[in-house]
From TrEMBL:
Top-rank taxon, per record: Bacteria
Molecular function terms, GO-annotated: DNA binding; transposase activity
Pfam families referenced in this protein's UniProt entry, alphabetically: DEDD_Tnp_IS110, Transposase_20
PANTHER family in UniProt: TRANSPOSASE FOR INSERTION SEQUENCE ELEMENT IS1111A (PTHR33055), TRANSPOSASE-RELATED (PTHR33055:SF15)
UniProt name for this protein: IS110 family transposase
Domain Transposase IS116/IS110/IS902 C-terminal as annotated: residue spans: 291-369
Residues of the Transposase IS110-like N-terminal domain: 23-172
Organism from which the protein derives: Nonomuraea zeae
InterPro entries: Transp_IS110-like_N, Transpos_IS110, Transposase_20
GO biological process terms held by the UniProt record: DNA transposition
């Protein structure tokens, strides 16, 4: 290969993007603060100051006032555990532009001494050169909503664990009711469990408590309820059911609070609609957004609430749908080395967001819709796990468009989209090659 002519690239290393910056190396008890500002005598010289600030509300408020007097343009924090929160929240309230960055993205060059003082200076230098990539931190009202939705998800998982413990207890008592009823959380099974706890042991009488479609299984229920359920099983089962009832009440309380927060949430008006050119276009309310997201196959109002709590209503932080999908770790990655390229894992991402999107993708895969057909086509070729990620990304792209335009509505393309929009000649060539590989000679005759 002939060597190319070298091309000179102008050295712009001396050009600073941000003149007055601050950086904080965060720890549990305190933080090292570094500021870099222009020298009073002018020129290219810089003034670097480093000091320690205690991680208390009064001390951080005093720091915020000092940084405002110094006319600091940007403050950068490392996302160290949850210790960054007091610094971010208080400095943000003071009117400073605060950036939260992943510590992995701003790691110091290897082989250099590592101290909190040097880390703060290094972070400040990266900030003034514009080499930091801020993490997404939603506004206060979205953070409050997110705390409620995450707590609800955690309590739902905890309730599931208690049901599993109850099923394990019944197995220990040789009660096989879960083999007959698909779930223990029904009126019929709950009545049987309450009767067992109250002291009833006759399997025939217990089976007669079945209601609805479960009554056709009374003979099987009679056999399943013939076990060795004693008093200690009854006491433990009562405790587990009490825990489940308590969690049900807490989940219902959280759901009501989430709905109230979404109802009271201020409207969001996209930046492109703020001008006088669109006086007839109103802002989008959170309740209206939840209703529009609910139209997407696989998404329920509860899932829509979680999505809004995790990504917010303002999509200006994500210039394109691809940026949002990449932030959610739903975009395919490629690792290139020389002439070889291979795929890579999409990454962990936000577990709460990816969890509900995965659930929505699986539910959408059971529907006779565009997303359902897309799920089935990918699952057939690449497996269900890849299909979940691909459909989850498609849902994320749809969500971005709906949030970016307050008047957009979801319109399903239909499950026959892949059949009506494909290249007929290309599809025919594909089938011909497959038949020829099996040893057939193919001659096409157009249908009349």
């Amino acid at each position: 290969m002939v060597m190319q002519e070298p091309e000179e690239i102008p050295d712009e290393g001396h050009e600073r993007i941000v003149e007055r910056v601050a950086a904080i190396d965060v720890a549990k008890v305190s933080g090292k603060v570094c500021t870099r500002t222009p020298h009073p005598q002018g020129g290219s010289r810089r003034v670097t100051k480093v000091w320690e600030v205690t991680a208390t509300l009064a001390a951080v408020e005093e720091l915020g006032d000092h940084l405002m007097r110094e006319q600091i343009q940007a403050v950068t924090l490392e996302s160290t555990g949850d210790y960054w929160r007091i610094w971010f929240y208080v400095l943000e309230e003071r009117g400073l532009r605060v950036q939260l960055v992943n510590a992995r993205d701003v790691k110091h060059a290897p082989g250099r001494p590592k101290t909190d003082r040097l880390d703060a200076v290094w972070l400040a230098k990266l900030t003034e050169k514009g080499l930091v990539r801020p993490s997404f931190v939603p506004p206060h009202e979205i953070r409050a909503l997110r705390d409620y939705t995450r707590m609800r998800i955690d309590l739902i998982h905890e309730r599931t664990r208690y049901w599993q413990r109850l099923e394990k207890l019944l197995e220990d008592a040789l009660i096989k009711i879960s083999s007959v009823s698909s779930t223990l959380n029904t009126l019929s099974t709950r009545a049987m469990l309450q009767a067992l706890i109250a002291g009833e042991r006759d399997p025939r009488l217990l089976a007669e408590l079945a209601k609805g479609r479960l009554r056709v299984k009374i003979p099987a229920l009679t056999e399943a309820l013939n076990g060795r359920f004693d008093d200690h099983h009854g006491e433990l089962a009562g405790l587990l059911l009490a825990q489940i009832d308590g969690l049900d009440a807490q989940i219902a309380r959280l759901t009501a609070r989430i709905e109230a927060l979404i109802t009271d949430m201020p409207d969001v008006r996209p930046a492109e609609l703020n001008s006088d050119a669109h006086p007839d276009k109103a802002a989008s309310s959170a309740m209206d957004t939840v209703a529009r997201l609910d139209e997407i196959p696989g998404i329920s109002p509860e899932v829509a609430q979680v999505i809004l709590a995790e990504i917010g209503l303002d999509m200006t932080r994500f210039p394109t749908a691809g940026h949002l999908a990449s932030w959610a770790k739903l975009s395919p990655q490629t690792i290139q080395s020389g002439t070889r390229s291979r795929g890579a894992a999409v990454g962990k991402g936000n577990p709460y967001l990816k969890g509900v999107l995965g659930t929505a993708a699986v539910v959408a895969g059971r529907t006779d819709t565009f997303l359902g057909e897309r799920y089935r086509r990918i699952a057939k070729r690449r497996g269900r796990l890849r299909a979940v990620v691909a459909v989850g990304r498609s849902i994320m792209v749809i969500i971005w468009h709906l949030l970016s335009d307050p008047h957009a509505r979801y319109r399903d393309l239909g499950s026959d989209y892949f059949l009506t929009k494909i290249d007929r000649e290309k599809k025919a060539r594909t089938h011909i090659r497959q038949l020829q590989a099996l040893g057939f000679t193919v001659a096409l005759t157009p249908a009349t």
